[in-house]
Model the fold of this input.
Amino acid sequence: MEERSFENRQVSIRLESADLAVAPGDSATVPLAVHNLSASDGFFELTVRGIPGTWASVPSPVIRLAAGERREVSLTIQPPAPPHARAGRYQVVIRVASQEAPHQVAEATCTLTVAALEVPGRIGILLASTEFSVAPGETVAIPILLSNQGLERDVISLSVEGIPTAWVYASAASAPLAPGEQQEVTLNIQPPRSGAGGAGRHPFQIQAASQAVPGQVAIADCILTIATFSQFSCELRPQRIEAEEPARVTVENQGNIPEAFSLTWQSPDEGLEFEPAPAQELQVPPGEMAMTEFRAKPRSRPLFGKDRVLPFTTRVQSAAGETRNLSGEVVGKPLIPSSVLTAVLVVILVIAAIAVLWAVLGGSPEEGAPPEAPAATATPGEEQPAPTQPPEEPTQPPEPTQPPESTQAPPEPTEPPAEEPPEAGQLPSGPEEGDSPCAPLAGVLFLAPLLIIARKDRGKRGKRNAA
Done:
């Protein structure tokens, strides 16, 4: 109890306790006893100093007291909630004065401690709150009031246990304090915007250690609540696939809570068929990846023609409603590829070229060749004379003395023998080999397959160079 009054003792005020404590956002009721010591009635006014005026309230700032009357008055102190109020100690002065005689004043003082947590001892810690909330990627500031309640100068070092140290940085790593001195240090906590921290409540400790007296540590137990957030990335590989070849969709959960992702595949005009199903669901823990495999093929394929490229879209949607679209293409081939048709055409042309060349160059050896002289034959037992010696010249008969008169007419000139028709089954001999009109055609038929193959090879090389 404490009482303070002037010498005339016209009025007095009493408190039940000289020490008061209240947490920010809460309220404390301070009972006051006001006594009119004069012999006459009067009006008395209450005022509070040492704290903001918005913190204190009474039912009526002016009270009427009869002569000798004593009355109980309730004073309410309510500091605002963090971060508008900070932890600390305040010297509160409560005054009561007479309106008729303002010099007649009585005062009472008390110590008000505003803190949600007070750690007593050689090293004092005051916290305005023990529970803090923060969104990933943002920063929460924690003001800490440190006090040296020892008898010698000390340096107090701060540290945090229970959360990663990479999240924490302070305005000052240590605070040098004289005996009875206090200093406010701000501790900042910034969890990353990823799934590493995890959403929810995380207990942690703030430790203040004395360097002058090793082993003296003040510990404040707190709770950090990290808000939830949803974020993801996805990828389609490969983006261009052959029909019925496998492709993969990878989803990475970059949020801090487990999440379900729905995957759907769509194609224009429903031209593609997807396996195993056109809709799937993936459960992905925070900070991890999941993969699903699928195949796509055209619902119909042409018999001949070129490859068809059919687009499709993979839609990935999170449980929170965020959506991503991945575009891809499926290459559909005809039932009979163009390469097979080209090979068949080449074979046909080669066979035709061989047939023409055989017809032009492959006749019987007697055709078109001059007839050979018949070989001389010898009967058995006879030896053929060797043609080494020339035959003897015939002796010239003696010339007649008088030519005999011819009694016969001279012979008429004979006509040349007519050509005999070819025998049955024998073809007439054609023109000479150099004058055959089928030889250029045979060359064209022989070179055409080679030109077609060379052209296709140049086209493939051009596509590879362009790619």
About this structure: Confidence is low (pLDDT under 50) at residues 1-8, 364-369, 373-411, 422-435.
